[in-house]
Design brief:
Blueprint: E1 6-12, E2 17-23, E3 29-33, E4 36-40, E5 45-47, H1 49-61, E6 64-69, E7 78-79, H2 81-88, E8 91-95, H3 98-108, E9 124-126, E10 131-134, E11 137-143, E12 152-156, E13 159-163, H4 183-194, E14 201-204, E15 218-220, H5 221-227, H6 237-248, H7 257-264
Parallel strand pairs: 3-6, 6-8, 8-9, 13-14
Antiparallel strand pairs: 1-2, 2-3, 4-5, 4-7, 10-11, 11-12, 12-13, 14-15
Helix pairs in contact: 4-6
Length: about 290
């Protein structure tokens, strides 16, 4: 019987994001999921503190990066995928639904005809159900749209990396008011994950420590089915959609949405520099 994969989580306290390294042991190939590039919106400066910590772990365990996996086009942090690839190699991948996100946001940011809308900024686009290997570990991509069209979860052994589809039981589920988000679609995507064996480990992409508790990011299918505050007691699709619509109306726009989406559509690369050698992020005014 294949041993379960080892999972190491790296929590970024600034954005609440959790990045993961998944591997079968020291000296083996690994996957890195949802790496973070630090960004200060006040100064417009990037930094690699989060990546440095993760790379230190890779070096200590002598892990070779085979895949850099994005669960979706994040709106709350800049992806560190391209920067990590420059340092450690690996193929950057996301779900094939990224094309829909690119088509939606390219006009907002005036990206122009030179910006490809086919997902080619990534090394690989996963189809739903597509299988892949991380050395001896077997992985499967599971499309989980609803939060965004590009959302995908990764099932690796007994572990599922759920992205923003579902959070810890006391934090509930993802918002659905982003462009092309849909609460009913999310409900079905979550149902797909909660239909997996009860002992399946679920790893979430964010945790903000609701109620002041310490951040946590690992749960199980059984725990989510029993205690998720948005889904327990056999909440049906209509009730879930109504709850999400009411809750989403109270939520603010994520602080880093505009800079993050521009970078994350490019697999974590900054826009190309202009004639003066400086890269610029655009701020659409009165457009959202």
């Amino acid at each position: 019987m294949t041993a379960p994969p080892a999972v190491e989580g790296f929590h970024d306290p600034v954005t609440g994001t959790v990045s993961y390294v998944v591997h079968a042991g020291p000296g083996m190939p690994c996957a890195v999921i949802d790496p973070v590039l630090d960004f200060d919106p006040k100064s417009g400066r990037t930094a690699t503190r989060s990546l440095d910590r993760l790379v230190g772990f890779l070096d200590e365990r002598r892990l070779a990066v085979a895949w850099i996996l994005e669960t979706h086009v994040h709106a709350d942090h800049l992806s560190g995928a391209a920067t990590l690839q420059q340092r450690k190699g690996g193929r950057i991948a996301i779900g094939e639904g990224v094309r829909a996100v690119q088509r939606r946001f390219a006009p907002l940011f005036g990206l122009g005809p030179g910006f490809a809308l086919d997902g080619s900024q990534f090394d690989h686009l996963f189809a739903d159900g597509e299988r892949f290997a991380i050395g001896a570990l077997a992985g499967e991509a599971l499309a989980t749209p609803g939060h965004t069209p590009a959302c995908v979860a990764y099932r690796i052994g007994d572990a599922v990396f759920a992205g923003d589809t579902i959070f810890m039981p006391d934090a509930g589920t993802a918002r659905c008011d982003f462009p092309d988000g849909d609460a009913r679609t999310l409900y079905r995507s979550i149902g797909r994950l909660l239909g997996l064996p009860p002992e399946t480990r679920l790893f979430v992409c964010h945790d903000y420590g609701p109620g002041g508790r310490e951040p946590r990011w690992e749960t199980t299918v059984a725990e989510e089915r029993a205690a998720n505050i948005h889904l327990r007691d056999e909440v049906d699709e209509d009730a879930f959609a109504a709850m999400r619509a009411a809750r989403d109306r109270t939520l603010e726009v994520p602080a880093l949405l505009l800079p993050a989406v521009q970078v994350n559509l490019r697999a974590g690369r900054l826009p190309p520099p202009e004639a003066n050698g400086i890269a610029y992020l655009k701020l659409p005014v009165n457009a959202l």
